[in-house]
């Protein structure tokens, strides 16, 4: 039996269950991934052996807890090839990371009349913060068009990014269209015009090798829960000189250097941006998730997912009545596949698939401007990870047929 | 069990209302209207009502939604046209109860008519919001009407 990359499926107990009396096929990995035994065990170990607040005590437990929390930061630093641990800041999520940049850095560099350039494929979390910043600063929010295939139109990018552009904020991989954007090229373009490059890595870090120095981005944001760790832990990477120039946006414990009755000075990086007791077990679990992913090998994960996409995408395209959004060529496609079936509403399709034990997402995927761009109200989205198999892909394809027949080919 | 369980939800009457929605579109004589969105899925419902002397004289709906929300909206218009505002709001509460598996009076069940069939949505928790969206929109509309009258 096929058990995913290196039999990894066996490490995910949750996958071995029935949903609506059918064996579970979990295909909502772009929303959140499942957690392997090792990651769950790291949380239990922490609470059973090392639990104490970090950076606050001289006692032994506090030391152990601090060591575990900080060594997870070292793992993240190595994982994304950040130049130093002080450039890696713990946050709650990608959303919080992006809001931190928009609020603190945006406030610092954006002035009236400046341009902020994004794309229609941005998740709301890499769109609304810039919209708000633009409104507050009387800056101009501009969009880079997409090609008919749903890829970023680089010719249009060269027109939209100008000497007036201060910030370019683009997702590394789309959470709807399954495309990977040429971040290195866009970053170069942004830098040529003196703009700063911010990249949303929520859908890329879990699935491919990311090297922030190679990309040369100024900021990079991602979440733990889309890469085997629990919810509530995220990361912000930033270039050290930019992070140093930025003001914190939350104040309190851990982030201070010294507090006087009327003033205070800030702790050094990265703690300057980490006010309050952090998500200690979440950070440790993210470290454990990185160990797990590194052990599998990011290149192996990418190759494996590519094979799955090569297998499933042509099969989906062959189903009469299925419309796929994004590129139809599997080699330009990640494991995130959005589609609609006949004229059926995605909710009806997703409920049908759920009855067959297949968990997919239906809705606007926090990308309403993209839905508008595609001229649809919503889509169904199936998203794969390394523990999914060809058998899962077959179940999806067959069940779409079943759903289609149930709803009488859309003529309900 | 598989997909056959869906027959519990997508009954013939439900599909009929989705296919042939009653009172669908704009209402030229509308005295008030209200648009409600389901932010999680992007569905939009616009309910328009003509209310005269505390009675819902006419009622229509418009918008984008799944089979369940569209069918539910159609059933709602059939059940509530001709009802007093007070009765309509009570029936809206009864419908909400049905969708979470609570029992309601025989009288309320009869007044709801076809809409009572959607009580099976209680077995599909992820879809309860789809069924109740139009009813919430109308309830909000009626509440506003009551405070403004």
From TrEMBL, chain A:
Database matches in Pfam families: Aminotran_5
GO molecular function, one term: pyridoxal phosphate binding
InterPro entries: Aminotrans_V_dom, Aminotrans_V_PyrdxlP_BS, Cys_dSase_SufS, Cysteine_dSase, PyrdxlP-dep_Trfase, PyrdxlP-dep_Trfase_major, PyrdxlP-dep_Trfase_small
This protein's name: Cysteine desulfurase
Signal peptide: none
Catalytic activity: (sulfur carrier)-H + L-cysteine = (sulfur carrier)-SH + L-alanine
Keywords of this entry: Pyridoxal phosphate, Transferase
Database matches in PROSITE patterns: AA_TRANSFER_CLASS_5
Cofactor needs: pyridoxal 5'-phosphate
Protein family (similarity comment): Belongs to the class-V pyridoxal-phosphate-dependent aminotransferase family. Csd subfamily.
Biological role: Catalyzes the removal of elemental sulfur and selenium atoms from L-cysteine, L-cystine, L-selenocysteine, and L-selenocystine to produce L-alanine.
Enzyme Commission code(s) on record: 2.8.1.7
GO biological process: cysteine metabolic process
Domain Aminotransferase class V: 25-396
Keyword Nucleus annotated: no
């Amino acid at each position: 039996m096929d058990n995913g990359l290196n039999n990894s499926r066996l490490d995910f107990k949750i996958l071995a269950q029935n949903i609506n009396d059918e064996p579970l096929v979990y295909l909502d990995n772009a929303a959140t991934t499942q957690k392997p035994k090792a990651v769950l065990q790291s949380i239990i170990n922490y609470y059973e052996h090392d639990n104490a607040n970090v950076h606050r005590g001289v006692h032994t437990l506090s030391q152990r807890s601090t060591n575990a929390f900080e060594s997870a930061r070292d793992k993240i630093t190595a994982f994304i090839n950040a130049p130093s641990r002080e450039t890696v800041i713990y946050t709650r999520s990608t959303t919080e990371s992006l809001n931190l940049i928009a609020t603190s850095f945006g406030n610092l560099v954006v002035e009236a009349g400046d341009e902020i350039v994004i794309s229609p494929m941005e998740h709301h979390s890499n769109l609304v913060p810039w919209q708000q910043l633009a409104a507050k600063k009387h800056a101009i929010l501009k969009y880079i068009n997409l090609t008919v295939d749903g890829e970023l139109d680089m010719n249009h990018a060269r027109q939209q990014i100008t000497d007036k552009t201060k910030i370019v904020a683009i997702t590394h991989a789309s959470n709807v269209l399954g495309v990977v954007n040429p971040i290195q090229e866009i970053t170069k373009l942004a830098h040529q015009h003196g703009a700063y490059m911010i990249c949303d890595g929520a859908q890329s870090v879990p699935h491919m090798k990311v090297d922030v120095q190679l990309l040369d981005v100024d900021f990079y944001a991602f979440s733990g829960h889309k890469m085997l760790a629990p919810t509530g832990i995220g990361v912000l990477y930033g270039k050290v000189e930019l992070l140093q120039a930025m003001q914190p946006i939350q104040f309190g414990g851990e982030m201070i250097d010294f507090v006087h009755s009327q003033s205070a000075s800030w702790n050094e990086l990265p703690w300057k941006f980490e006010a309050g007791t952090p998500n200690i077990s979440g950070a440790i679990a993210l470290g454990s998730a990185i160990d797990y992913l590194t052990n599998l090998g990011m290149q192996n994960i990418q190759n494996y997912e590519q094979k799955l996409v090569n297998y499933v995408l042509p099969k989906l395209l062959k189903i009469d009545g299925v419309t796929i959004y994004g590129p139809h060529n599997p080699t330009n496609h990640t494991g995130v596949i959005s589609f609609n079936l006949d004229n059926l509403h995605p909710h009806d399709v997703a409920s049908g698939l759920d009855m067959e034990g297949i968990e997919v997402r239906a809705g606007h995927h926090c990308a309403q401007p993209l839905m508008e761009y595609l001229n649809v109200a919503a889509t169904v989205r199936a998203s794969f990870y390394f523990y999914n198999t060809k058998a899962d892909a077959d179940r999806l394809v067959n069940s779409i047929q079943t759903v289609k027949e149930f709803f009488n080919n859309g003529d309900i | 069990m598989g997909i056959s369980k869906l027959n519990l939800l997508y009954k013939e009457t439900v599909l009929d209302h989705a296919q042939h929605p009653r009172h669908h579109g704009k209402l030229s004589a509308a005295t008030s209207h209200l648009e409600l969105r389901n932010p999680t899925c992007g569905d939009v419902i616009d309910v328009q009502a003509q209310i005269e002397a505390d009675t819902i004289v006419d009622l229509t709906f418009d918008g984008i939604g799944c089979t369940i929300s569209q069918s539910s909206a159609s059933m709602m218009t059939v059940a509530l046209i001709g009802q007093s505002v007070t009765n309509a709001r009570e029936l809206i509460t009864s419908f909400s109860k049905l969708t979470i598996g609570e029992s309601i009076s025989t009288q309320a069940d009869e007044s709801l008519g076809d809409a009572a069939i959607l009580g099976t949505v209680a077995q599909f928790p992820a879809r309860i919001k789809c069924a109740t969206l139009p009813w919430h929109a109308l309830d909000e509309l009626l509440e506003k009407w009551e405070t403004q009258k």
